[in-house]
From TrEMBL:
Signal peptide: none annotated. Keywords: Membrane, Transmembrane, Transmembrane helix. It is found in: Membrane. This is Amino acid transporter transmembrane domain-containing protein. Residues 50-434 form the Amino acid transporter transmembrane domain. Coiled coil: none annotated. The keyword tRNA-binding does not apply. Gene3D superfamilies: Amino acid/polyamine transporter I (1.20.1740.10). Its main location: membrane. GO terms for cellular component: membrane.
Amino acid sequence: MHEQKSDPEEKSGNTLAQTYSHNVGQVVTLEPYHDAVFGDIGGDGPNYRNVGWLGTVALMMKTQIGLGVLSIPAVFNSLGMIPGIICLLVIAAITTWSDYMVGAFKLNHPEVYGIDDVGRLLFGKIGRGVMGVAYVLWSGMLSISIALNALSTHGACTAVFVAVAAIIGFIFCSIQTLGRITWLAWVGVIAIIASILTLTVAVGVGGRPASAPQDGPWKSDYKLFGDPSFVDAISAVSSLVFAYAGTPGFFPIASEMRDPRLFTRSLIICQSLVTAIYIAIGIVVYYFCGSYVASPALGSAGVTMKKVCYGLALPGLCVSTILLSHYVFLRILRGTKHVTQNTLIHWVTWFCCTAGTIIISYIIASAIPVFGGLVSLVGALLGTLLSFQPYGCMWLYDNWRGERTRIWYLMVGWCVFVIVSGMFLMIAGTYGSIVSIIDSYTVDGGTSAWSCADNSGSS
């Protein structure tokens, strides 16, 4: 037998009877233990508490980096580079605080697994239902269909590619625990970053973007300050919200950490890297492409480079579908032995949950196959609802009866600001996004629901 030693990560809000193998570093369950979310863990069932802090960084970054980064250059085109950077930093600051509240709330309430549990604590059954439905509607399939369109040079109807994306999503979402997909998260992060860095180099050395005039002299028409209409401006801000709206996905990650107290460490690393990547990519791609930047941005460098970029990004886009589809399973079986035991009910429920979630996402991606419109709409309607308002309410829920110090009053003011700004962005952003989607349906050559049109950006 290997010599055993205790791992400090195993001491958390729930006492875990686990140790690390001294030589190989693999978790060994010495005896069953009880978790406030998953119940009794042990035996031959899945171990849901097996994510370290570094694996948490990978899962967080993959939850954040996805569709959103591909819309940032177009956001800068709408707002102008300087207002775009300012808005991005403001959204980053607000959502980083929201992300921090995920870890703090989890330590205070170990029984919380997902945003729906928060809704139940704050607002009862109605809150749980609203938050749960909003979380299920989160969609990552449109990006896969766009990638397949680009790689095949629109070799089939877009509706077919969305169906293929649904099948891929079902396969990936059937992996049970986050501990088992940490390595996939790293693959996904590297794939997405590699694709956007390739795009950045391509637009920097390629001379001109694919949709710009190909004859005569060329100079980028980027703007430091834009002059957007209200609809364009609020839609652009909603896209930035979407880029940082991985917040609800952090709850399951915190729940599956060995030590949730290390959540903040992982969060700081994640948000710092994500914000640096967003700003760098947004500035460089928009600087070289100007108003001819494609949305999604991977279509900006021409047909060949578009295929290269989407080919690199595809693994990461597939991984994105995993991280947002697990909580329904626990919502149904929580409190039963079937959560952590490999029973027939366990597996039937698991596959039914993943299939149901994928079907709903398929309907959304097919009904709104317009990249910019879907990103903006999801950011406004769901991104703010899941990343702004609840977290101000969470702080007030835990601290309302605290000592009335100056810091307390400042925090109350901050929470009110987060809630009110979230409500404004949700209402105004949803309106702006719907107007933009309607306009995209009516323009010459525009796409529509269940369309066969190519949705992969400029060629």
